[in-house]
Amino acid sequence: MLAWVKAGTLVFWGLALTAWLLNWSGLLAWLPAAALLIAAIHALEVAYFWLRLKQHSPEPEKDALHILVFGVFHMQRFMRT
User: Fold this and answer.
1) What is the per-residue burial (b if ≥16 Cβ within 10 Å, else e) of 27-59?
2) What are phi and psi of 79, to 5 degrees?
3) Mean pLDDT over residues 16-32, rounded?
4) Keywords assigned by UniProt (predicted)?
């Protein structure tokens, strides 16, 4: 299940980047703005991970990057411990 969610997240980032590069119009023009908002939220999640949960990770830099891309979907594994 989690792999599908992460794949969907990658599709979202790809669509947002494409919408920004090609200046899509209409409702899809909001994708880059939504991506910026989500990136800001993910940055806060990385800060939380770094301050509270990094000691549970064997590779905190790699996990921080994954949290920046996938957000709470990647961070769930540290919150269970």
Assistant:
1) eeeebbeebeeeeeebeebbeebeeebeeebee
2) -75, -20
3) 96
4) Membrane, Transmembrane, Transmembrane helix
